[in-house]
Amino acid sequence: MSSDSSGGSNQQSDRPSAVTRRAGILHRVADDLRRGHNVELYLTVTLSLCVAALGVFSVVNINVIGAATLAVLALLAASGLETRHQSAEIGKRLERLEVEVNGDVPADRFLTTRRPSLEVDVAAAADIRLVGVTLSRTVRDLLPVLDRRLRKGASIRVLVIDGDGPARAEAVTRARGAGSSDFYQHRLAATTDLLRVLAAAAPTESALQLRVLPYVPTFGMCLIDPAEAHGRIYVEIYQHRTLEHCPKFSLRADRDGPWYQHFARQFETLWDSASPHRLSIPELHMNENKVGPNTLSPA
After folding, report:
1. Distance CA 13, CA 23 (A)
2. pTM exceeds cut of 0.70
């Protein structure tokens, strides 16, 4: 008697689980149909069941059943083709992901001919470093924001070629359209004049420094807070005797690790090999040592 009651209770306990499983299957089917997933498979199953039922009860003749069977096979073939297409697309995406992970990416994904505007980055920077042949356009475009950063206590270091040395002649031979050394002399003079305007308003003589290189650098750079975790370095690769735009790329301290550090060190190498070029009269900053440590104000 007790065994019968226990058996009945086991059967009752099994019923909810079976009902739950059936409800789960119906819920999954309804969810697939709402999303448009596996529609051809559900249609194939439904059509197959209908054909089987019609054949068992002899409702239709054999020709109709044969045609319906061919329709089911066509649906199965279409479903198989769709699965293959999806598998091929997934395979292509995995290949692209593998290529990106391994660093083998197309050059167009890394190099560009347009440099992003530097004003936003420079406007909040405490350490600004510029490298170029003459930097005439860069300094002119950034003049207002550089002036504001100097007044807030930022440090600016600039590197250009020496207009009185062999670098000027070297730059002419590498450039297309530069007929004489005066081509670069005028641009260097314009850069120096603009920097002197900035230096006159700088809080200290060391806040804005200019050095000149005895050779032409192979790339230009703009370094924004290079020693900080949010640092950025924008690099422009100089070309030879062409009017095409120079290729450019950017580096981030939080992303590009060794290469970021490499180009940051390259600036220091260039800086150490360059000669100081005075921008201001010492008397303008005679009180430099009397001023306390200059704290950088927020942008």
Report:
1. 16
2. no
